[in-house]
Amino acid sequence: MYWVALPMWADNPDAETVEPREYRVWLTPGQAYPIDGVRYDAVPTYPLRREEPTAQAVDRWAWKIQWTPAIGCRPAAPIVHVWDCEEAPRDAEELDVFAALEVLRSPGAVPCTECGADVALGPLA
Questions:
Q1: Are 22 and 5 in contact (CB under 8 A)?
Q2: Distance CA 123, CA 18 (A)
Q3: pLDDT one-digit tens code per residue, 15-70
Q4: Is residue 58 within 8 Å of 66, Cβ to Cβ?
Q5: What is the DSSP pairing of strand 2-12 with strand 17-27?
Q6: How far apart are CA 93 and CA 65, in angstroms?
Q7: pLDDT tens for residues 102-124?
Q8: What pLDDT, on the 0 to 100 scale, is given for residue 27?
Q9: pTM of the full predicted structure?
Q10: Which residues touch 32 (CB under 8 Å, ≥6 apart)?
Q11: Coil, helix or strand at residue 50
Q12: How many Å apart are CA 37 and CA 31, to the nearest integer?
């Protein structure tokens, strides 16, 4: 298997521009082969450096639970938020990703769409 970095373009909505981004993907030897007539001696080859996690990277995986009240015959349901979401209860316990996913398995549970919990946890749930 080969680790390949491909140049891509991505929208930057804050600056209203398009900028280059790097997209990395694993390829098998059958998928990654030299193209006839192309020289590869100028292509940089170096190992990726493993970066130490920062406080922000650690915080990003903290989650909080907000319970909606029971109304009529509908039971109370949890909403999973990113730890710093405006809607998240300030005094709620911070959970790790596994605990947040366990909460999402309960009936009626939903991830918050305002803070991006649905984007972060949706594919995992």
A1: yes
A2: 26
A3: 777 777 777 777 787 887 788 898 878 776 766 666 665 555 544 568 999 998 88
A4: no
A5: antiparallel
A6: 8
A7: 999 888 888 988 888 888 887 77
A8: 78
A9: 0.50
A10: 2, 4
A11: coil
A12: 18
First to last CA, the chain: 29
| Angstrom distance (rounded) from CA 118 to CA 111 | 5
Domain boundaries, the chain: 1-35, 57-121
The pLDDT score that the predictor gives to residue 56 is 56
Q: What percent of the chain has pLDDT over 90?
A: 8
Amino acid at 81: H
Which residue pairs, CB below 8 angstroms and at least 24 apart, start in 89-94? 89/64, 89/65, 92/64, 92/65, 92/66, 93/64, 93/65, 94/62, 94/63, 94/64
Residues 117, 63: contact at Cβ < 8 Å?
yes
User: 63 near 98, Cβ under 8 Å?
Assistant: no
Question: What does DSSP say about strands 63-68 and 77-82: parallel, antiparallel, or unpaired?
Answer: antiparallel
